[in-house]
Each structure stands twice: as C-alpha cells, then as structure tokens.
Amino acid sequence: MRILLIGSGGREHSLAWKISQSPLLERLWIAPGNPGTAQCGSNVDIAVDDLDGIVDFAKREIISLVVIGPEGPLVAGLADRLAVEGIRVFGPKADAAALEGSKAWSKEVMLRHRVPTGGYRFFRDLNTVNSYLDGGATYPVVVKASGLAAGKGVVICEDVSSARAAAKSMLDDKIYGDAGETILVEEFLDGPEASVFALSDSRTFLCLETCMDHKALEEKGLGPNTGGMGAVCPNPLVGPRTADAIERQVMLPTIHGMNHEGKRFQGVLFAGLKLTPAGPKVLEYNVRFGDPECQVLMMRFQSDLVPYLDACAKGTLEEVEAPEWDPRPAITVILVTDGYPGNYTTGAPIHGLEALDENPDVQVFHAGTAMRGGQLVTAGGRVLAVTALGADIHQARKAAYAAVDAISFEGMRYRKDIGIAALEAVDSIA
Ligand code: GLY
C-alpha cells in the first residue's frame, strides 16, 4: 500500500514508526513530518492546513490510504476533500470531526445520546455569562472555549472573579480568536482522568488499551496545562468493570448515535474521561489519537497497524481480529524547551540520541525537532517523547529516565514523576 500520513508531531512519528513495520506497505510519505518520521518514510514539504496541496499529492502519487494525525485538517474537512477524489482516508469527515471542533455541539451530542458528562451552559455574550457566574454557578467551574484552541482554552476557576476574567479573555479579548466565540461554563468533575480510544468504521468499534496522560507542566500536577508531559499505558485505574462501562456508556452510544444522526464517525474516537465516584464521565471528545498517548499505544501495539487503519477507512472493521498487545506497560516522558507552554526559543543542538539506537524497548519519538546543517536541533515546545517498555511500571520508568539522562539540549525540561500516579494506583489496587 502507498500511505500518506499527515502531521509532524510525536504522535505522527510513533504512527510512522509502526506503519513502516507493516508488510503491506509499499511506500510511506509523511506531510510535512519531522526528522524522526524521515527515518520511517519520505517527508514531503506540505503543511497540514494546505488541503489543496495534500489532495493534489495524494492524487499524483496514487495513495491507497491517507492517515490524518491532527485535528486541524479533520475539522477543516480534509477527509471530505479526499473522499470526493475517491481516496481512502483514516479519520472522520468534518461533520463528525465537529465532536472536537465544537465543544458546545459535542455536549449536545452527549446529552442526546445519554452519554455521562458534567452539567454545562454555553454562552456567546459576556453580560449573560457574568449574570450566570454571579448568581447561578456552583464553584469551582470550568470555563472552556468551544472551538479548537491547540490544547489550551480550558480554565478551572475557583471563584467568580477568576471565572469572569476567563470568560472576558475568551469572549471579549478573543485570546483564542474564533475558537472563543462560544464558551462553555461546565461543572467541575472531581477524580482522576483517563484517556480512552476506540477505532471505528462508524458501524462497529474496537476499544484500544487505556492511557493516563500527565497534562500539567510540573510534578504533582502543578503549573499550567500543556498538550501532555508524559503518558502511561495501560491506565491501572481503568479495571475491567470500568472499561466495560466506558465501552457501553460512552463509546457505543456516541458512535451509534453519530451514525443515527447521519454523521458517520470513522477513525479513532478519543474520550477524555474523569473517573468520578458516580462512574466515568466524558470531559471532552477528540477525533484523533492523543499526543503523547499515541506514543505509548504504538509501543505496545504488537499487531500490524495498517489493516486496522484500512478497515476503519473501508468499513470492514468487524472482519479484523482484536489486536495483540505487548503485556508490558509503556511510559513516555516528554522533553520540552524551557518556556513551554508559553514562549520558548528554538535552534538548540540536541545531543545523545545516537547511543539509544540499539535498545528495541526504548524509542525516542521526535516532535519539535529539525535538521540544520546536519545537526539535529530543537524546533518546538515539545521536543522529544522518550518512550520505554518495562516488565512493570517501575522498570518502564527506569528505562525511560535512563534514556532521558543520556539526552541533552539547552533549556531541556521534563517531569520526573511520569508513572508515579500509575504506580500509586497499582499499589492502592493491590
Ligand atoms: N494528550 C491530550 C491530547 O492529545 O489532547
């Protein structure tokens, strides 16, 4: 098969790494890719938002399957554009990608199909939201931009003044542009989070292993929210009963409900959940693999990934067997540049990766990296995802952090506690 993968992050490097191992693969292109994906296939210099460029390339190269990594091109309708040309694509069309593109609409979908979630109101006008925040809200509340805000756009507010400030920043100051034209004020849900994924061809679905993300910049969940500073797979807090509840109460009604509404969900549905005392509740849907959850999923996914992606695209998912998983847990530690998730510098030389090439249980997935004059340098906030398998979480942590110790670049920062919450969860269950 001739496969074109769209994206340039750590998620896409892990997908490219896995796809490149497929015996079904004739050739892999990545648009635009990064220096890591260049080791798995051919990078092509087309930006993810250049829909014309991507469609033209896919037609010219007679691509058998396009795999869309990030949410931006999905919400912008890349899958629709490719489908018009008769090109198979893994990822939902725009009407279903709105599950991530419009948080207000996705809440309505949850309500229509009785998917457990927190209470919410949505607003487009500052006076109306202020009246609600002054009188009707129970604190803390979550103030959220409805549109795509690159992993930002969610503020937990302990009191009226911080909630008013968050609402004003989105509705009036437009810090997230159009994404904050509509905002949600949501009930704050207490409990640990879980990231859950289901592959779907719209008629049927297949749940993948669960993950634990680490969104805060600093240890113990402190500091600002990021795209994700590390992940663990599986999530020990999701036992078989919780996994079953998630499958029956979240994935099934969402995927069947979308189908019923004529908005076929095809691709990977990612439910960000809170595990509350009253059961799992959906914080939000995403319509793509998580980053860095994808890195730990790919590390443990032992089957050939390509037939699964292709079956979603073709509508034949019920014909594939459940995949094999490495029984060992995986963790990934994200190395970021000082200043992330705010302003940071780029162009710092990265050292130490050569020494790690030999160990199949450790993979370093590239995210914000670039080649400058033959030297690998930093080119983004999240730079590398250092990913390792281990006999248990403790061993996986040891392997990942040993690899982290071998890597250096100016301004390198990372959390030292990735996997600790999972270890504590294992201990509390035992
Ligand atoms: N790691 C969370 C996300 O990908 O949205």
Describe, in plain words, how this protein is organized in 3D.
This protein has 13 helices and 23 strands. It is of the alpha+beta class and 430 residues long. Helix content is 31%, strand content 26%. The termini are far apart. Helix 7 (126-135) packs antiparallel against helix 8 (160-171). The mean pLDDT is 96. It has helices at 10-19, 51-60, 71-75, 78-84, 94-101, 103-112, 126-135, 160-171, 240-260, 293-300, 305-314, 393-406, 420-429, and strands at 2-7, 27-32, 42-43, 65-68, 88-90, 120-123, 141-145, 154-157, 183-187, 193-200, 205-207, 212-213, 216-218, 222-225, 230-233, 267-276, 279-286, 330-337, 362-366, 369-372, 375-378, 382-389, 412-413. It has 4 domains: 2-93, Rossmann fold; 125-181, Dna Ligase, domain 1 (2-Layer Sandwich); 193-319, 2-Layer Sandwich (D-amino Acid Aminotransferase, Chain A, domain 1); 330-429, Glycinamide Ribonucleotide Synthetase, Chain A, domain 4 (Alpha-Beta Complex). Strands 12, 15, 18, 19, 22 and 23 form a 6-stranded antiparallel sheet that branches. Residues 151, 213, 227-228, 286, 290-291, 293 line the site of glycine.
What are its keywords?
430 residues, alpha+beta, Rossmann fold, Dna Ligase, domain 1, five-stranded parallel β-sheet, 13 helices, 23 strands, 31% helix, 26% strand, binds glycine
Strand content: 25-35%
Structural class: alpha+beta
The CATH architecture classification of the largest domain is: 2-Layer Sandwich
Instruction: List the uncertain runs.
Output: none
Integer tally of domains: 4
Helix content: 25-40%
- Summarize the main sheet: 6 strands, antiparallel
Structural shape: globular
